From TrEMBL:
Superkingdom of the organism of origin: Bacteria
Protein name stated in the entry: Uncharacterized protein
Length: 83
């Protein structure tokens, strides 16, 4: 199995706050979403795997955040064709 590498984005997150390093908004910010859509294109499974892994990590870093809000933030914004 090939190693999975972290994609490089200008609007990336910083941990443990999960904010954008460029604009300070909650990550994924609007610009990150645009970059991610471009990066992943129509590879829906890869897109969802990436965000489910980010959700798991964020859940550990943000234990006081509501689970449903984290799901909406990391998964439910994705384009219909990626679900």
């Amino acid at each position: 199995m090939a190693a999975v590498t972290e994609p490089m984005f200008r609007h990336c997150y910083t941990r443990p706050t999960w904010t954008c390093v460029v604009d300070g908004d909650e990550w994924p910010c609007a610009s990150a979403k645009s970059e991610l859509r471009h990066q992943f294109g129509v590879r829906g499974r890869v897109f969802m795997d990436y965000f489910l892994n980010r959700l798991r990590e964020a859940r550990l870093d943000l234990p006081d955040e509501d689970d449903w809000l984290l799901v909406k933030r990391f998964v439910l914004w994705s384009p219909e064709d990626h679900r």
